[in-house]
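C-alpha cells in:
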C-alpha cells in the first residue's frame, strides 16, 4: 500500500472513530431525555442497563453481571439493590451452587422492560423514518458486523459470555 492510500485509510478509520464517539454521546443524551415507566422512575441509567441485561439474558450471578456490563461489582450491587427495592428483580438460589444466588427479573420488571423497550424502538422508528428499507437493512447489517467485531476483540471471562450474546 502506498503512502497516499495509507493516509486515506487512516483518515477513514479516524472518521469512523469520531462518528462512533459522537453516536455514543448523542445516544446517552437521548436516553437521558426519555420518559420511562412509572415503576422504573428514579432509577439511574446503569440500573436500566442491568434490568435490560437480566430481562434478555438472565438470570445472572452478580459477579457475572458485573463482568458482562463492565461495571465494578459494588456499582452493580448498589444498582441491583435499587431494582430489588422497586420490585423489578429478585434474588433466587443458584440451582448449580446453593451457596450462591442469581438475580432474575420479576413480572413487574419484565413489564417495565418491555414498555421501555417499546419506547426505545419507537424512537428508532422515528429517527429512521426517512431511511429506505434497504438503507435500514444495510445499516443494521453493518452495525451488527461492527458489534460482532467489538465482541470478538473482548476477552471472554465468564462461562456463557459469548461474542454472539455480547453483540446483541
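Residues out:
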Amino acid at each position: 500500500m502506498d503512502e497516499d492510500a495509507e493516509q486515506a485509510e487512516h483518515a477513514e478509520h479516524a472518521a469512523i472513530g469520531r462518528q462512533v464517539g459522537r453516536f455514543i454521546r448523542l445516544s446517552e443524551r437521548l436516553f437521558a431525555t426519555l420518559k420511562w415507566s412509572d415503576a422504573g422512575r428514579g432509577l439511574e441509567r446503569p440500573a436500566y442497563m442491568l434490568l435490560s441485561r437480566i430481562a434478555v439474558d438472565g438470570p445472572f450471578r452478580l459477579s457475572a453481571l458485573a463482568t458482562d456490563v463492565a461495571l465494578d461489582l459494588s456499582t452493580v450491587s448498589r444498582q441491583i439493590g435499587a431494582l430489588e427495592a422497586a420490585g423489578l428483580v429478585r434474588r433466587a438460589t443458584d440451582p448449580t451452587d446453593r451457596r450462591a444466588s442469581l438475580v432474575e427479573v420479576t413480572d413487574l420488571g419484565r413489564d417495565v422492560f418491555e414498555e421501555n423497550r417499546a419506547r426505545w424502538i419507537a424512537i428508532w422508528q422515528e429517527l429512521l423514518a426517512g431511511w429506505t428499507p434497504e438503507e435500514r437493512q444495510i445499516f443494521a447489517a453493518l452495525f451488527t458486523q461492527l458489534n460482532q467485531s467489538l465482541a470478538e476483540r473482548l476477552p471472554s471471562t465468564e462461562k456463557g459470555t459469548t461474542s454472539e450474546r455480547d453483540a446483541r
